[in-house]
Amino acid sequence: MRPALLCLAAALLAWPSGARPGRLTPRRTAGRVPFPGLAGRGGVVLLAGAAAVVGALASTPVVAVLAAVCAGCAGRALQSRQRAAAEQRRTRALVEALGVLTAEVRAGRSLTEATGAAVDGCPDPVTAAALGPVLRLGEPPSGPADGGCAAALVRIAAAVRLSAHTGCSLAGVLTAVEDDLRARLRAEEELRSAVAGPRASAAVLAGLPVLGLLMGSGIGADPWRVLTTTAPGTALLVAGVGLELVGTAWSARLVRRAVRQ
Fold first, then answer.
1. Residues 100, 147: one domain?
2. pTM of the shown model
């Protein structure tokens, strides 16, 4: 029974996405995420459930609950990184598409022809699908414009409408938007490089309790048995995991605030 449950937990952890297999072209691989099974809230619940099953099989119910909580927090952190990476990928794709569009407009081609070239030259399919209607109709994309790419699309839509109504040069405005996006990408790269050290330090500090358990087991103290089979040890385990999660969340919040400033 136990090997079957372990196999079930492993299958849940490796659960694939609903995409159909096929030949991976550059356009299709541009929109892929590193962990497609974690997409949405269901992926986090699935990961937490698998961790709970493994914890229940390997130890006590308390360990199973703690494993589920830790797995859920780790899943949400991975999703946050995926969203940030996707936003950066869309911004880079938009910069490339704007470069193509500006070159086509300056070469004297019509906006319709330049739009087709820009959409075809956009490496991200999501960005290409959003950019086409913006350039053809001058309407901003639906939904909140809280991301850098969405805000840039709103500015591009305004530029298209202004050019259509007044006849002003569209290439100049698009070049300004492109330059702004490139500057934002450079600033984000510099900020990520600046906070790489604090992030690495936080990761090392988060792993120190596990290293302590391994060292205790190496000298024959058996700390895991104490933490899981005795009442004081279980209380210390719960408190330690709670403090670990709070410290990790606080460190991540400090890094996010530094990056946003």
1. yes
2. 0.69
